[in-house]
Amino acid sequence: MSDRLEKILLIIAAICLSISLLLVYAIGLQWLSNPDLAQYITEAVMYISGLVVLRGIWKQTLDKKISSRKNNS
Predict the structure, then answer these.
(1) Is the pTM of this model over 0.90?
(2) How far apart are CA 34 and CA 15, in angstroms?
(3) Each residue's pLDDT tens digit in the chain (73 positions)?
(4) Cα Rg for the chain, rounded, in angstroms?
(5) Cα–Cα distance, 13 to 19 (Å, whole number)
(6) CB-based contacts of 10: which residues, under 8 Å, 6+ apart?
(7) Secondary structure of 4-69 in HEC code, one letter for each residue
(8) What is the pLDDT of residues 37-56, one digit of tens each?
(9) CA 59, CA 4: separation in Å to the nearest integer?
């Protein structure tokens, strides 16, 4: 993937993760019509978004450091 696409994916995943965390911890799932289903859906979104954010951070920071060290050597 290109760097621009990875940055966009990282931003989208961070927004999804933030919305899910806000829904779970600030608003609460008990106010929804089906709290059990909402919990499963928000947990799935949080897990997937969390993994994408971790991968995005990895690609944006560590891979660039590794490639710059190879270029300097």
Answers:
(1) no
(2) 23
(3) 788 888 899 999 999 999 999 988 888 888 888 989 989 999 999 999 999 999 998 888 887 777 777 777 6
(4) 17
(5) 10
(6) 52, 53, 56, 57, 60
(7) HHHHHHHHHHHHHHHHHHHHHHHHCHHHCCCHHHHHHHHHHHHHHHHHHHHHHHHHHHHHHHHHHH
(8) 989 999 999 999 999 999 99
(9) 12
